[in-house]
Amino acid sequence: MIVLEDVFMSYRTRFGRKVVLDTLNIAFDTSKSIGILGLNGSGKSTLLRLIGGSELPERGRIHRSVNVSFPLGYTGCFAGNMSGRENAAFLARVYGYDVAEVVTFVESFAELGDYFDEPVRTYSSGMHARLGFGASMALRFDVYLIDEGFGAGDARFAARCQQTFSNRLKHSRIILVSHDPGTMLTYCEAGATLHAGKLTYYDDIKEAVTCYNEIVNEPLNTH
Amino acid sequence: MTVLDMRPAWQFWDAGIQTHVRVISALVRREMRAHGGESRLGYLWALIEPGLHLIAYMLLFTYILKRHAPLGNNTALFLLTGIVPYFLFSKMAIYVSSAVGGNRALLTLPPVKLPDVIAARVVLESTTYLFVGFIMFLALYLGGVAEAIPYEPLAVAGACALAVAFGLAIGAINMVIVSFFHNWMTIYGLFSFPLWFFSGIWFLPEQIPQPYRDYMLYNPIMHFLMLFRAGFYRDFKAVSLDIPYAISVTALTLAIGLALTRVARRKILEPT
Hints:
The structure holds 2 protein chains of 2 kinds. Chain A is of the alpha/beta class. Chain A contains 7 helices and 8 strands.
């Protein structure tokens, strides 16, 4: 279970404060994979970072009874001045895994070649995603948090990711954030929509996608 | 809504401490590489810099003041007993304040928390400068200065601990101020210059006329240096040394510093 209690987030913009998450109260049942749908800029990535614990909510609390991964597909977790190898070793140490095992796995999975020993700041976004995906597959989590970047990199890598991932999904669940309903229907059982600061939960992902399509087709609210 | 996990509280504590130990040791390993840039020159510099300060003060003594050290027969030893604890404090105050800037990406990993990043820097920086101090005193001892071995190691250890703790406290306060004013460390640099000069590296408070002596003794660093020297010099009476004052100022500043980082942690972790 992941429980959000009165979670509130807002950002300061030039036009005043913009509320992205308006006092969310929800309990995610983590025996199901959940897809969160929302328009660009609706606060999906923020919500994912809060669920993972990368960021702290402005107000409210988040309780987790499961082992949650760092957000995947987004590249913020790696230190730019460390090589891919050093970053993988760091992750292994932080999560208490055998360093050599994790590094070997990431090296062969990510297929970065010589770049594995170069500083991460020289990586392209595709290489970043390969490293991130490889690292998270080397570690075991109950819930994987995925921010868009499913099937990063070329087709060959994407296929390998999907294969490894569907294997992993026998024991783990995902919370996937996207604005693409197609991926959602493949991987998720339950769903939620995030719109205008409010999160609505649906037991069935199909229902969530239907409601999301209504939001997309809604006429723009002009002031 | 309540927490759903029903394990007894001590299991959470135990798991929590284990995670912190893992994270801090991983950070220390990482910082050891990153400290001082990509090369190993950073560690050499840690040894050279206090050496340069020693030379600068030696020149001041021999050519400008034309005097002997107020304690013992060896000027270098007297200066070193001031420079080593001063560096422990001043380096910590600067290094801790930049702990977040250097680890921003890693702080987005859920298990890596702000106190871990601070603790890693305290461990690494105090180890570095304790080792540097050890090397310098050893060099003096091998160079024939028999007094370069503390006769009361407990006083020396206490002075080092206080200097580190006060450095951490000031570093934590700096960290909070920097999150509000990004140029703060430049201003802090201006403040710390008089500290370097007036904290008693090259003199003893007993040499300062009243009422100025009493004003200067409000500076806790002055007390750290006296305590450090009391551990080396048998004949040093240290009448101005006020250990309870040094401890309480350090503890209070530390409490304020750590409380501020806790209260302002969202602001500190905010991307710049």
